[in-house]
Specification:
Blueprint (H helix, E strand, L loop, with lengths): L2 H11 L1 E4 L3 E7 L2 E4 L8 E5 L5 E10 L4 E5 L8 E2 L10 E6 L7 E11 L9 E4 L11 E4 L3 E10 L2 E6 H9 L9 E6 L3 E7 L4 H4 L7 E3 L3 H10 L2 E7 L7 E6 L3 H4 L1
Parallel strand pairs: 7-12
Antiparallel strand pairs: 1-2, 1-4, 2-3, 3-6, 4-5, 5-6, 8-9, 8-11, 9-10, 10-13, 11-12, 12-13, 14-15, 15-16, 16-17, 17-18
Length: about 260
């Protein structure tokens, strides 16, 4: 087997199937990283490369960064994390996942860049021209030596977007779940922040915010900063194309947790 074949095989062996559809990567023994939107339930079924199916528990999620940590027994070798900050445009990368039911499918491409993406807020992404399809979400993006430098998340235009590996490491090292508003947003220049989706039983849902509402008077950075600092948010928004601005108070956490 060629050196590239060995790298690909090792990466496949550390990639898992999550609940029969999405993907994940064994980051360290017993710890599996995937996307938050893949780990939609507190308990999941994980299929290892060997075909063994084990129960997993979601330990924590970060819906803003779209990451989740699952705990599950596994004797498979974990992936080797890489330094995503060292990625450069033109580097070859590999993506492994389970798209459309094809277990362990691999695609290759090159890095196009790294940074924020218009319409997706301030957070940084690794952009590469690897081919992704439904089922790839949560799987590893690795460099040519098999070091995981990102978690594949979505397609934007013709490029794949992955959460940088260093952001994954920061998520794993954080002590608690990140406080979240529970919305998926798209910035509309000159208008505000369009709510594309509201997560069930989230602070936004409990405050009666709806998909289609447009938050006004703040930038993505300002909203993220307020979510990190505050127990309550006062949000102004427009609904249904009406020019009138409404206001709602959103409770993010208990006062005790915020203290």
């Amino acid at each position: 087997m060629s050196e590239f074949g060995i790298v690909a095989e090792q990466l496949r062996r550390s990639t898992v199937r999550v609940d029969g559809s999405g993907s994940g990567v064994i980051w360290k023994p017993g710890a599996i990283v995937t996307n938050a939107h893949v780990a939609s339930k507190d308990r999941m079924k994980i299929e290892l490369w060997s075909g063994q199916i084990v129960d997993a528990v979601v330990e924590k999620r970060d819906s803003q960064r779209d990451l989740a940590l699952l705990r599950a027994p596994s004797d498979a070798l974990p992936a080797q994390p890489g330094d995503s900050d060292a990625l450069r445009a033109g580097q070859i990368v590999l993506a492994v996942g389970n798209p459309l039911g094809f277990v362990g499918a691999l695609s290759t491409g090159v890095v196009h860049g790294q940074g924020p993406v218009r319409g997706l807020g301030w957070q940084s992404w690794v952009l590469a021209d690897v081919r992704l399809a439904p089922g790839n979400s949560g799987g590893p993006l690795a460099d040519s030596e098999g070091r995981v430098v990102g978690i594949n998340t979505m397609i934007a235009g013709r490029l794949a977007l992955a959460v940088p590996g260093n952001a994954v490491a920061a998520f794993l090292n954080s002590a608690h779940d990140r406080v979240r508003l529970g919305v998926t947003l798209r910035e509309i220049p000159g208008a505000g922040l369009l709510i594309l989706e509201v997560a069930p039983d989230s602070p936004a849902a409990r405050a009666s915010l709806l998909a289609g509402d447009i938050l006004v008077g703040l930038t993505p950075d300002e909203l993220s900063g307020s979510i990190a600092r505050c127990a309550f948010l006062s949000l102004k928004f427009r609904r249904g194309g009406h020019p009138a601005i409404r206001e709602v108070a959103v409770r993010l956490r208990s006062v005790e947790a915020a203290a």
